[in-house]
Amino acid sequence: xxxQNRIRDLFKKDGKGYLIKRESHNLEFKQNxxxxxxxxxxxxxxxxxxxxxxxxxxxxxxNSPHIPIGMTNNRFTETDPAKIDRNIREYFSQELKWSSxxxxxxxxxxxxxxxxxxxxxPVICKKNGSDVLREGAIYYRYxxxxxxxxxxxxxxxxxxxxxxxxxxxxxxIEKISHIxxxxxxxxxxxxxxxxxxxxxxxxxxxxxxxxxxVKEGSFTEKEGEGLPTLRLVGDIDGVVDTSITIxxxxxxxxxxxxxxxxxxxxxxxxxxVISKLDIKNKPKYHTAIRSGKQTQVHxxxxxxxxxxxxxxxxxxFLQDCISEYKVKQAEIRESKKANLNIKKRxxxxxxxxxxxxxxxx
Length: 361
Known about the structure:
With about 350 residues, the chain is α+β, with helices and mostly antiparallel strands. Helix content is about 40%, strand content about 15%. It contains eleven helices and 14 strands.
């Protein structure tokens, strides 16, 4: 159903002037838009609807009975949508696809917040918000109410996500089987990294602009363009949109020195924390960019700072990191020392054997 028709259906009335539509899993009525804790309640409802099938919050409806009287204040029109979006991003793990607009009906103004069903479920609350939102909670829109999800609905969501992932793997495997594993390279459109064998190539925006993807499945070099000719095995469904490739410096803007400054740690302490949490093996928070044949620059995401700040609030966390790091470094030194001694012994034995061989001659 088109959105215009869907909105029009919301305002259908019975003989008494009451709305025929009732609040449901995808519809909630409110009289006026408010800020403060009320804003948290709205985004809680949006998250709950996103975890279900999506839905609408309609402002300007009198409560019990539901009569469309229009909004009686200007807060909806005066509130910047960016403020709502910042709150959604601050409190919830997934990005919600939502929009807001004013609808006029019978010379009255109604505010509408509409949210789509989330592509990735569940949407999880990531921090406490007053007495409205709880960190770690998964909200779900039931019939006319939003509350923490119950077992049957959560199991259904998890089973569905597992099935989606399984189907996606099947599609990937079918394509790999058709193309051949040796001919397959992986392009991470999130980080802009192209994995080729055991190595990886970092594609920057300038290079991506020069490469011209075509539907037939090949790169072409027209006379005078001077571009390299590459051949892709398999077909590309449509033109590849290079605009979705994000520069690594955007995803991982922080150096190790930046982390030190933000967390007020010295060089030894930050290395101890990185080692303790094994951050260099977690691509969500870390990447290594080659700046030479043997030189790497370690970069980190902004999200890591928030996580480490929370970890640092634990009384013994930093001391535990340092203690473990000292032990680990001592083990590394002992291992290097042992390897060096082995090399020296081997070298000495080789020299003795050579002397004995020369003497026998």
